[in-house]
Structure formats: C-alpha cells, structure tokens
Amino acid sequence: MFKNAALGAYGAWLGAVMLGPVGAVVGGAAGSWLGYRYSDDYQPLGKVMADLSDDDKEEIVKKIQELVGDLSFTALARYAMESQDQRVALLNLIINEIKKRR
Fold it and tell me: So where does this one cross the membrane (predicted)?
C-alpha cells in the first residue's frame, strides 16, 4: 500500500512541477492508477484467518496463549496496551504464524 501512495504522490508532484495545479490533478490520478495497477493482491487479516484450517487456528491460539499467558479479551488487551514491544511481539507472532500456514 505504501508503494501505491508513493506513486500517487510522485505523480501529483511531477504533474504539479510540469503543469501546475491541473498537472497535479492529472499526475495524481495517473500515479494512483499506476499504483493500483502494480499493487499486490491484498487480503484483510480476518479473511486470511477464516481461510485457515481449524488445526492451524488452534495452533495460532496456543502460541498466542503462550505469549500472553491467558486467552481472555481482558488479558489480551492488557498485554497489548502495556508496551510497544509487547504489541510488536504479538503482531509479529500472528503475522509469522499466518505466513507459515499460507
């Protein structure tokens, strides 16, 4: 998604430099179209999780429980809110486990 935004911004900047305000609009539209055209397929996390097998979901839940210590929503929220390092660890665990299983 960063690449898409960067191409849109670059197109707008280049268009503005070359043709002023009208060029910014045209360049932004062209850059955005290029960003969309060359983007990777994106799937939301919920869709990816829904597509996993029940066994894979159970394994991910076990690993989260090992990291957090409990599976209650309160414990999970408290863990994620305590520090940036814990949030990063939790997100990395989820992302890495999903990547292994896709």
Answer: 12-36
pLDDT in tens, 56-88: 989 998 998 999 888 788 888 888 888 888 889
Domain boundaries, the chain: 2-37, 45-101
SS3 label, residue 98: helix
Burial of 59 (0-12, 13-18, 19+ CB in 10 A): middle
Q: How far is CA 48 from the centre of its chain?
A: 12
Structure tokens, 67:
């990291």
DSSP string, 79-92: HHHH-HHHHHHHHH
CA distance 92 to 30: 35
